[in-house]
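hey can u check if this looks right to u? its 258 residues, i copy pasted from the old doc so theres a chance i mangled smth
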Amino acid sequence: MTDKVEEDGFVKVERFKYKPVTNNKKKNKKNNKFTFKDSDDWNIDDISLNLKQRKEALITSRFYKELLVIFDDHLILTKPHDIVCYGIGSIQKSKNAQFQFVLALLLREMLKIPGNMYIFDPVMTKLDQELCILHDIKIIKENEDGKRLAEKPTLFYMPHCGRGLYSNTLSANWNAKHLSNVTIVGNRFDMYVGSQLEKDLKKECPYLIPAVEILEAVSFPKEFDNNQIFSDLSIQTFPKETIEKLEPEFWLNVSKEI
């Protein structure tokens, strides 16, 4: 293609110079440093980086700042020797599990746990287990169904577990000697008792019914992310001074529906 230009009575022909067309797709591809990687293909570095980002999002949130105040006032005083984590889920597969796992690590650091940190969930992957070993967390080999005896003060970290699992943890420690050693971070028991049919409670979680009479519960702040990760969680303790006042019959009067 040409243009004709009048110059000094002569017609001068100017030819266009065509610029080479660059392949923008290739260029953009080279400049794109961030590529999606499915969690099924993650390695230990991938999941560790993910948790670092989750931790940053958590500790810079207003939710966490409010939570620290609650921990200072109500959790540090329990002085747990061990932490037992049930039901977090797969850290590799679940965003909620990633945040809950990060908080568990922060709790161990904050409480200066002198003993061990244990974990169990039947859905944990091999990468989850590798991650736990990296963080010096002992993996419980067999499903205890939550029935672990608290010989020493123990924090049971059980976010959003089934109500039957909470009941099992109580049943394993249902006596004046051991129950005061139990602190549970989990869903508030009074959410179940009083809002659901008593016959269902007696069948699935009988120990929750008397437990609400003697526990002290302090709720987590309400707002974080999509309000599902830490929703309805609380710190639930069984004060020794309350337990010492109970009659022996209290421990026997657990009604169960068969």
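The two ends are 92 Å apart (CA to CA).
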